[in-house]
Amino acid sequence: MSIVVDIGNSRVKVAQFKNQQLLNVFFYNKDSIINELEKLTFKTGIISNVGNNKLKQKLLISFPNLVLMSPILNLPINIKYKSAISLGHDRIANAVGAYNTFPNRNNLVIDIGTCITYDFINKSNEYLGGGISPGFNLRMKALSSFTENLPRVNFKIKSTPLIGINTKESIESGVINGTINEIIQNISNYEQLYPEINVILTGGDTTFIKSIVSTKKNSIFADENLTLKGLNTVLIYNA
């Protein structure tokens, strides 16, 4: 039995695996994660961290059988990113997850979370890079934080009319429709460069986004646990 600990910007995901089989996924607050992990039985595990270094160090001290995710670990893909040491652990894991799902294919992974990341892996199983942009909530927060009069709108993923009839609806229309159109256009741009490409959506809202961006000609798949599966594969390669 192994575990994957994915420390995100807002919460911690923990997954239990038996070899390549995903058994359970749990969501924990950062201040309770150590106590929660003490309740689980596992032989080994891996930590992915996007920025909470204090928590990462506490976990590594408390659980010395955990491996820290890093681009210098053994990987089934070749990292061609020029600043690999600064490459986000989640982005590497997504690339490995895409490789597991569609090896020897051109793959674009779009991870929709606090940030939206675009990661491209070519058919030679080389990670080339991608893009980073603000996620839905971050865009709404920026509008209220950096203007004098726009209110803070709590983000709820939903179909939104193009024409907002008040300020709240106008913000929802601009952010939600604008972000969706960004995703659609980026997919189109990649398809022009690589006509034979798979698009894999991951993150909490993948089902909603997939229903909007999919067309008959697109090979678009949704797997909200892609990051966890990729991390588990990295762990297997380094066990």
How far apart the termini lie comes to 12 Å
Rg on CA atoms, Å: 19 Å
Fraction in beta strands: 25-35%
Query: Main β-sheet: number of strands, strand sense, barrel status?
Result: 6 strands, mixed
The stretches of 5 or more residues where confidence is low (pLDDT under 50) are none
- The beta-strand count equals 11
Order of helices and strands: EEEHEHEEHEEEHHEHEH
Mean pLDDT: 90
**How would you classify the quaternary structure?**
single chain
The strand order across the widest sheet is 6-9-8-7-10-11
Which class of secondary structure composition applies to the elements? alpha/beta
Share of residues in helices: 25-40%
Shape estimate: globular
- Compute the number of helices: 7
Protein architecture, described:
- This protein is an alpha/beta fold and 239 residues long.
- 36% of the residues lie in helices and 27% in strands.
- The strands form 2 sheets. The protein has a 6-stranded mixed β-sheet with strand order 6-9-8-7-10-11, sandwiched between helices. A 5-stranded mixed β-sheet has the order 3-2-1-4-5, sandwiched between helices.
- Helix 4 (136-145) packs across helix 5.
Give a brief rundown of this model.
By secondary structure, the chain is an alpha/beta fold. It has helices spanning 33-37, 53-62, 89-101, 136-145, 167-193, 206-213, 226-237, and strands at 2-7, 12-18, 21-28, 44-49, 66-68, 78-79, 106-112, 115-121, 126-134, 197-202, 219-222.
